[in-house]
Amino acid sequence: MGQRESIFLEAEWQSQRSAQRRIIKFMLLIVLIFLLLLIVLWFWTTQPLFSSPVPSSERTVEATRLEAHVRKLSVELTPRDESHIENLDHAAAYIKNEFSQTTASVSEQPYRVQGMSYRNVIAEFGPDSQERIVVGAHYDTAGPLPGADDNASGVAGLIELARLLARRPPLLRVELVAYSLEEPPYFRTSGMGSSVHAEYLRKQNIRVRAMFSLEMIGYFSDTPNSQRFPVPFLSAFYPSTGNYIGVVGRLSDWSLVRRTKASMLKASPLPVYSINAPSFVPGVDFSDQLNYWRAGYSAAMITDTAFYRNVNYHTAQDTAEKLDYKRMALVVEGVYAAVTDLAEQQ
Question: Are 161 and 95 within 8 A, CB to CB?
């Protein structure tokens, strides 16, 4: 082999090595970008990452009271679906009576759907400000079922939240709203009680700082793999044991979700996880917060994750004895902290 050929082969070999190095660098860059995206996704879904609960030797919400409300609704006043209007009326009257035992200004918001009368029950606390915070929970059920977790638990939390707000009036108007007709066949229609309320606020040009939907807050499990997920890869970011409460919002609600999670974590030792995700992810918009999003308001759902954890969802087995009222009480304390913190922000 001549010197010329040798130099040519050496140059070609160097060129190949340079190309290989460029390919390796490119692949490393791709891997780095992928890892960075994973970190961003982790932060986006679970932030804030760290927060320490404030220890408390005295809990402010009684688990026995929560259980009494759930049993009243899911045992004595069942079924509460759209065709059992008498029981819905009795449930509304019970909620109104409980609200009226506090310092709240209590009212009803009646409306008609397909010739039948339904009503929301509203308790208002704090000054008559133009901006407000809304916390809501639906009191109807999906068919002739007990609906203990879905959603007597949310209503029980709403009632006990009223007692907390009565002890220390908020600096901003807070509306607690018990809705009728969240469940099918009226889900995603203008017949939902939350749709009626959200549209009223929008038409009155009332600003809403935040809306919280209490959707199933009573079912917890310490059994491994008791928690399921709408998308498999989420199991890399969240525990597989269903012993925590969730805060769910759209991508655009990341600030509200972040602040809510931080407040709840500081209020009690109950684990709190959050997610901000597009509404097409199954479950993200499966409750009353949907109608406040449609009205242009920032909203989040506070939930035990419903059918992703509770195997009794929309069955006759969704009964009062299956709920964890001590953990429910911690959820209510967390929601109260979130509402109070939001109300105090300038």
Answer: no
Rg (alpha carbons) of the chain, rounded to whole number = 25
Give the tokens for residue 345. 């922000």
Q: What is the pLDDT of residues 151-194, one digit of tens each?
A: 999 999 999 999 999 999 999 999 999 999 999 999 999 999 99
Run of H or E including 302: strand 299-303
pLDDT tens track for 220-265 = 999 999 999 999 989 999 999 999 999 999 999 999 999 999 999 9
Assign 3-state DSSP to the chain and report helix, strand, coil percentages, each to 5.
45, 15, 35
* HEC secondary structure over 50-65: CCCCCCCCCCCCCHHH
Helix (H) / strand (E) containing 32? helix 3-46
DSSP letter for 71, please: H
* Residue that the structure tokens 């065709």 belong to: 83
Residues 99/162, Cβ–Cβ less than 8 Å = yes
> Which ranges in the chain belong to alpha helices (H)?
3-46, 63-71, 85-100, 154-167, 193-203, 254-267, 289-294, 325-344
How high does pLDDT run on average in the chain?
A: 90
Q: What is the pTM of this model?
A: 0.87
DSSP 72: I
Which residues does residue 255 pair with via DSSP β-bridges, in sequence order? none
Helix orientation angle between 63-71 and 325-344, rounded to the nearest 10 degrees = 100
> Is residue 137 within 8 Å of 215, Cβ to Cβ?
yes
Question: Which residues are within 8 A (CB) of 174 and not within 5 positions of it... i.e. 6 or more apart?
Answer: 124, 125, 126, 132, 133, 134, 135, 165, 339, 343
| Digit-coded pLDDT (tens) for 288-327 | 999 999 999 999 999 999 999 999 999 999 999 999 999 9
